């Protein structure tokens, strides 16, 4: 197994269990402790994990959003598969909103080459889509957040009052069948909360590690979401709970060798 593949497996274990021990990983992968130490140090250098004595732990700080580059590095393969599935619901001439989440940002790689009006509060979405034919790009402006590289606050909310949004695509830090969608970033949570009533359809785009998790700031109740797009590592029983709440669930299939 290549180091990059082993590190992705380690990340998934940390996301699922919260932390890992080097000695247990070395035994599982049949490599030396030194090899695992180098893996964990490489992940820590990319701000993907936090090194602790004897292992590593998940980056979780309920008070602060992770910087965008660090969020982009987490579960990158799963995000790309989910993002590719999410864009399939978009039709020509739709007005869509793309939030500042890393998974939704990944959707910019797969958007169809058809006329679209794209609204966003994310600086990186504008950068990614700038110059593409047939797209009308509208950025909210507002108070700039460096960590999320996006705009929030009253100015951002006011900029969207005149638009009817066909599809609102949102990422989450947690999505729970009882509590709804939640965020660690209060500014992002408030903006999403204000946007939901203006959208005809609200689509949650997230990999399966976010399901049945909760974060400090809830921005939408479960019955406010139309569609969930996630990957096929999700527990089928959990997916049925979302379907039972009236959501359409789209499951993106990961290649079996991943």
UniProtKB/TrEMBL annotation:
Pfam families according to UniProt: DeoRC, HTH_DeoR
Domain HTH deoR-type span(s) in chain numbering: 3-58
Annotated signal peptide: none
Keywords, comma-separated and alphabetical: DNA-binding, Transcription, Transcription regulation
SUPFAM superfamilies from the UniProt entry: NagB/RpiA/CoA transferase-like (SSF100950), Winged helix' DNA-binding domain (SSF46785)
Domain of life: Bacteria
GO molecular function: DNA binding
InterPro entries for this protein: Carb_Metab_HTH_regulators, DeoR-like_C, DeoR_HTH, NagB/RpiA_transferase-like, Tscrpt_reg_HTH_DeoR_CS, WH-like_DNA-bd_sf, WH_DNA-bd_sf
PANTHER family: AGA OPERON TRANSCRIPTIONAL REPRESSOR-RELATED, HTH-TYPE TRANSCRIPTIONAL REGULATOR SRLR-RELATED
Protein name: DeoR/GlpR family DNA-binding transcription regulator
Organism for this UniProt entry: Coraliomargarita algicola
């Amino acid at each position: 197994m290549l180091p990059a593949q082993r590190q992705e497996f380690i990340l998934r274990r940390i996301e699922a269990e919260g932390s890992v021990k080097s000695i247990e990983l070395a035994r599982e992968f049949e490599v030396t402790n030194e090899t695992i130490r180098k893996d964990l140090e490489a992940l820590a250098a990319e701000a993907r994990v936090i090194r602790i004595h004897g292992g590593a732990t998940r980056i979780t700080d309920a008070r602060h959003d992770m910087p965008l580059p660090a969020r982009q590095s987490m579960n990158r393969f799963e995000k790309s598969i989910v993002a590719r599935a999410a864009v399939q619901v978009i039709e020509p001439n739709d007005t869509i909103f793309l939030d500042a989440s890393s998974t939704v940002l990944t959707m910019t790689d797969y958007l169809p080459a058809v006329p679209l009006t794209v609204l966003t509060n994310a600086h990186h979405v504008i950068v990614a889509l700038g110059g593409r034919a047939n797209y009308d790009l509208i950025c909210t402006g507002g108070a700039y957040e460096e960590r999320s590289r996006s705009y929030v606050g009253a100015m951002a909310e006011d900029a969207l009052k005149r638009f009817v949004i066909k599809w609102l695509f949102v990422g989450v830090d947690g999505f729970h069948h009882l509590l709804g969608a939640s965020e660690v970033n209060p500014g992002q949570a408030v903006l999403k909360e204000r946007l939901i009533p203006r959208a005809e359809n609200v689509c949650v785009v997230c990999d399966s590690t976010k399901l049945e998790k909760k974060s400090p700031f809830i921005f939408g109740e479960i019955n406010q979401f139309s569609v969930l797009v996630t990957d096929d590592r999700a527990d089928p029983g959990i997916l049925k709970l979302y379907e039972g709440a009236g959501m359409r669930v789209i499951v993106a299939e990961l290649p079996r060798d991943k």
